[in-house]
Specification:
CATH superfamily of the largest domain: Impact, N-terminal domain
Radius of gyration: 23 Å
Distance between the termini: 14 Å
Structural class: alpha+beta
Number of helices: 5
Helix content: 25-40%
CATH topology of the largest domain: Ribosomal Protein S5, domain 2
Number of domains: 2
Strand content: 35-45%
Largest sheet: 5 strands, antiparallel
Strand order of the largest sheet: 2-3-6-4-5
Order of helices and strands: EEEHEEHEHEEHEEHE
């Protein structure tokens, strides 16, 4: 699984046989966000606006009128080749009067996308998980004190006859350490159960 995404937008321009190519890349968290960004980032005056995105197992690409497989797929290959996730890349082409052929297009689109991503700032991709925590009332102060240390965010809190119940969102990499710390603190009385993983 890819471990990084972009830290912000990036651009890279190149020219091939008088055609100009401008690659633009952006971190996105959903296919809807990718498509919304493409709508406003594209240039309606350009000859082609070709793109691809990868968000976890979801991906799409578009050749926008270029020969099949010559634009969108090489852009997606550039994203995957850089081991990135939650990324959308648009390569805008202004035709310069000379045909590049399919091989030339693959090199231009894939090359512009790859160079744009290679030089872009990155940040680690955090995989989050949801967890439910149940503990005695007497531990609630100590438990709340632990949350920040493990980057856990409380999304819901409830009290019932058995004590405190919290719904948490925390980095999946912190889950085992927090569970162990809670066991030590409560002599095994506090329970942390994982409910679902989400990639955002």
């Amino acid at each position: 699984m890819a471990s990084a995404t972009l830290a912000g937008p990036a651009e890279f321009a190149l020219e091939a046989k008088k055609s100009r190519f401008l690659a633009k890349a952006m971190p996105v968290e959903s296919p809807e966000a990718a498509l919304a960004w493409l709508q406003q980032a594209g240039d309606p005056q350009a000859t082609h606006n070709c793109w691809a995105y990868r968000i976890g197992t979801a991906y799409r690409f578009n050749d926008d009128g270029e020969p099949g497989g010559s634009a969108g797929r090489p852009i997606l290959a550039a994203i995957d080749g850089q081991d990135l996730d939650q990324v959308v890349v648009l390569v805008v082409r202004w035709y310069g009067g000379t045909n590049l052929g399919v091989g030339g297009l693959v090199r231009a689109y894939g090359g512009a996308a790859a160079e744009c991503l290679r030089t872009a700032p990155r940040r680690p991709l955090v995989v989050w998980c949801q967890a439910e925590l149940a503990c005695d009332f007497a531990l609630s102060g100590a438990v709340h004190g632990l949350l920040e240390a493990f980057s856990a965010v409380k999304s819901a809190e409830a009290f019932d006859e058995s004590g405190l119940r919290l719904s948490l969102r925390l980095p999946a990499s912190s889950y085992e350490a927090l569970a162990a710390r809670l066991r030590d603190l409560s002599r095994g009385a506090a329970r942390l159960t994982r409910s679902e993983t989400d990639p955002a």
